[in-house]
Amino acid sequence: xxxxxxxxxxxVLDRKAHPQEGSYTxxxxxxxxxxxxxxxxxxxxxxxxxxxxxxNEETVLEISDLVYHLMVMMAEQGIxxxxxxxxxxxxxxxxxxxxxxxxIDHNT
Length: 108
Description:
mainly alpha, 108 residues, 0% strand, Helix Hairpins, globular
């Protein structure tokens, strides 16, 4: 799976560096961050709705759209795929990821 994500991200980076007429990715870059973030939000909402409706095939399609648009956002922001992989690697090495609940005594 990692290689699929890397291949996709490499295509996104290439489109940013070498715009091609008719490319949807290039269109997003030309419209700027607001358009890219709007698409991320739309795809996120569509993923949530598909999952809520327990439509697995549709959910997979929407997750794929979301991942793609997140990669466009990452490229626009200069965030590398390796940055995300490194952060996920750090998190997976943690033991006991639950945040500690803090109880406040308002009577003292």
